[in-house]
Amino acid sequence: MALHLITGIAGFIGSSIARALLERGEQVRGIDNLATGKRENIKEIADRIDFREADLLDLDAMKEACHGVECVYHQAAIPSVPKSVLDPLGSNQANVDGTVNILIAARDAKVRRVVYAASSSAYGDTPTLPKREDMTPNPISPYAVAKLASEYYMVSFFRCYGLETVSLRYFNIFGPRQDPTSPYSGVLAKFITQMLRGEQPTIFGDGSQSRDFTYIDNAVSANLLAAQAPTAKVAGRVFNVATGTRVDLNQTFELLKKMTGYSGNVKYAAERGGDIKHSLADITLATKALGYEPKVNFEEGLQRTVEWYRGQSKAAGA
Ligand code: UD2
Question: Does residue 180 belong to any structural domain of this protein?
Fold first, then answer.
């Protein structure tokens, strides 16, 4: 039984990785500053994890957190394109300085491997689809630049210090527990909760923008595989984590109408600054090196997510 550290454990992805590790009988420690993460997300596992309320920018706390740890899953971030456009300094501090801190702490504690939540936003708006890891990055938003800079730090710490690092470029991860309440929340969490309440969702732009929306279970399995894959195959490398398919927002809205029972229309508003038009991954590399396969497709994931939010709203109303 090894000890695993999850940064951002109270977030939607971090808490999902925690549950999967516990199911495997592993020991879990987690840090979160609760800026966007919520205690609610780790409530039912609270007595089985070593939770520490701490900020990535607190290097001493990170060093303590890394003590005795086998693998770090670095999920903590301020994950929003529009928020970073409004506050590039805040995005840089959390998403770059925070990463350097956890890398220093992991290196000094002789952690075996760090798996990092990188972002598909690194590819930017280049016309070629699908996106492959060997393409030249072209980030647009400060968020995308910060996530990419941290990827480069991952590579640097492998090359300079021999710390095994693996970057997983997440493509729009969604699923239960994703926070729908902020204006910066992911589009699916927002749309599902709005439509279940009978509220009109807003599409920024004409709705033809497309995404390789990836259900949370796929991201969790990629993390577990990345933590265990042979060093020669993964250390210092970057992998897409996605499904290899895409849907546009208009199609998604139509699907959600059926799943939620919402009978109204969608509102269209101005395109969002820093947005990219199309996103689709080539997942060949992750398949070959990690043995990764998307187990839950978009529609199935969407259905499960709708059911989860429906259950939440029933519980809240009960
Ligand atoms: C980016 C990354 C994603 C992840 C995420 C973290 C890309 C392709 N993806 O997601 O991997 O790192 O950042 O935040 O860069 N939208 C609406 N109405 C709304 C909300 C959003 O139309 O109420 C649109 C939005 O303008 C965009 C699309 O939905 O075109 C997806 O937006 P998002 O915020 O869910 O995620 P995105 O693609 O910025």
Answer: no
